[in-house]
Amino acid sequence: MARVVVDVMLKPEILDPQGQAVQRALPRLGFEGIADVRQGKRFELDLEGPADEAALARIREIAGTFLANTVIEDFVVRVEDPAEAVSADNNAEEGAVR
Amino acid sequence: MTTRVGVVTFPGSLDDRDAGRAVKLAGGEPVALWHGDKDLHQVDAVILPGGFSYGDYLRCGAIARFSPVMETIIAGARDGLPVLGICNGFQVLCESHLLPGALTRNDHLHFVCRDQRLRVENAATAWTGDFAPGAEITVPLKNGEGGYVADEATLDELEAEGRVVFRYLDVNPNGSRRDIAGVTNAAGNVVGLMPHPEHAVEALTGPTTDGLPFFTSVLKKLVA
């Protein structure tokens, strides 16, 4: 089963007060050197079939009409590399152990 | 025959009852419309009320925009049906592309709830005809995502065409570009604003009765 990831971010010119609040909290937590934080959304779409060009075109349509509001947001559509998914799961486990 | 004004209830709408009551106080007949029903039941105008339709999931108004009732409302609005979007209703109208721009999280991140002074910049829309041009009014404002944004070209176009209908006075409560509190489409039948006129229609419950002319305006417009 193929997984397609859609990342949605506010356009650079749109103020992101949530990202700013996160960035301002970092020094208090002892994390220095982060100049800017912008917060977005990640959608994981699991396809019933292959992630071929037809499926991706359909997903770009979903992203442009529904997942993102293109007045204020940009989006990127990509097919997730299976290896990436495995390593992400491993990282999550490590995080949980610690 | 009394004029029928539909008020849509989405899952998560809060102010549908108040909007219906405002219609009644203005002399119209409120008609409850349901998000899942495409039929507008022969109403002459529609109000999209405040609240948190579909829990504000994804983005405010983003899911409501695809509900069955909105299909009919979007088509009707393009043919001149008067539509007023209040707060969440304004967000739905922007998501539907019936109005330009978008509403984003308040720049200070706090939910704001206050009696807000506004200037009526355009008294020629279907929903503002009973105001004097330039009238200053006070109605409640309550939102977490009320910052109006659009690109500079769109903002310039709105200003040039007189489509900024309401502007915040005294303070800009949410970071809206150019203090914009409400806008209209080119035809003037679709109006959206973040403040809540339906909460200012009688002395007992509102800070003023400055909201009443919204509802009398559309009734007069429909009779004329």
UniProtKB/TrEMBL annotation, chain A:
Biological pathway: Purine metabolism; IMP biosynthesis via de novo pathway; 5-amino-1-(5-phospho-D-ribosyl)imidazole from N(2)-formyl-N(1)-(5-phospho-D-ribosyl)glycinamide: step 1/2
GO CC field: cytoplasm
The entry's keywords: ATP-binding, Cytoplasm, Ligase, Nucleotide-binding, Purine biosynthesis
GO biological process: 'de novo' IMP biosynthetic process
UniProt function note: Part of the phosphoribosylformylglycinamidine synthase complex involved in the purines biosynthetic pathway. Catalyzes the ATP-dependent conversion of formylglycinamide ribonucleotide (FGAR) and glutamine to yield formylglycinamidine ribonucleotide (FGAM) and glutamate. The FGAM synthase complex is composed of three subunits. PurQ produces an ammonia molecule by converting glutamine to glutamate. PurL transfers the ammonia molecule to FGAR to form FGAM in an ATP-dependent manner.
GO molecular function terms listed in the Swiss-Prot or TrEMBL record: ATP binding; phosphoribosylformylglycinamidine synthase activity
EC number of this enzyme: 6.3.5.3
Highest taxon, organism lineage: Bacteria
InterPro entries per record: PurS (IPR003850), PurS-like_sf (IPR036604)
Subunit and partners: Part of the FGAM synthase complex composed of 1 PurL, 1 PurQ and 2 PurS subunits.
Protein name: Phosphoribosylformylglycinamidine synthase subunit PurS
Source organism (scientific name): Streptomyces zhaozhouensis
Annotated compartments: Cytoplasm
Family from the record: Belongs to the PurS family.
Record-linked NCBIfam families: phosphoribosylformylglycinamidine synthase subunit PurS, PRK05974.1
Catalytic activity from the UniProt record: N(2)-formyl-N(1)-(5-phospho-beta-D-ribosyl)glycinamide + L-glutamine + ATP + H2O = 2-formamido-N(1)-(5-O-phospho-beta-D-ribosyl)acetamidine + L-glutamate + ADP + phosphate + H(+)
TrEMBL record, chain B:
Single Gene Ontology MF annotation: ATP binding
Listed EC numbers: 6.3.5.3, 3.5.1.2
Pathway stated in the Swiss-Prot or TrEMBL entry: Purine metabolism; IMP biosynthesis via de novo pathway; 5-amino-1-(5-phospho-D-ribosyl)imidazole from N(2)-formyl-N(1)-(5-phospho-D-ribosyl)glycinamide: step 1/2
Location in the cell: Cytoplasm
Keyword entries, A-Z: ATP-binding, Cytoplasm, Glutamine amidotransferase, Hydrolase, Ligase, Nucleotide-binding, Purine biosynthesis
Domain of life, source organism: Bacteria
ATP-binding recorded as keyword: yes
Catalytic residues identified in the record: 87 (nucleophile), 196, 198
Keyword Hydrolase included in the entry's annotation: yes
InterPro entries with a match to the protein in the record: Class_I_gatase-like, PRibForGlyAmidine_synth_PurQ
GO CC term, one of those recorded: cytoplasm
Reactions the enzyme catalyzes: N(2)-formyl-N(1)-(5-phospho-beta-D-ribosyl)glycinamide + L-glutamine + ATP + H2O = 2-formamido-N(1)-(5-O-phospho-beta-D-ribosyl)acetamidine + L-glutamate + ADP + phosphate + H(+); L-glutamine + H2O = L-glutamate + NH4(+)
Pfam families assigned: GATase_5 (PF13507)
GO biological process: 'de novo' IMP biosynthetic process
Family annotation (NCBIfam families): FGAM_synth_I (TIGR01737), PRK03619.1 (NF002957)
Complexes and interactors: Part of the FGAM synthase complex composed of 1 PurL, 1 PurQ and 2 PurS subunits.
Biological function: Part of the phosphoribosylformylglycinamidine synthase complex involved in the purines biosynthetic pathway. Catalyzes the ATP-dependent conversion of formylglycinamide ribonucleotide (FGAR) and glutamine to yield formylglycinamidine ribonucleotide (FGAM) and glutamate. The FGAM synthase complex is composed of three subunits. PurQ produces an ammonia molecule by converting glutamine to glutamate. PurL transfers the ammonia molecule to FGAR to form FGAM in an ATP-dependent manner.
HAMAP family: PurQ
This protein's name: Phosphoribosylformylglycinamidine synthase subunit PurQ
The species this protein was found in: Streptomyces zhaozhouensis
Gene: purQ
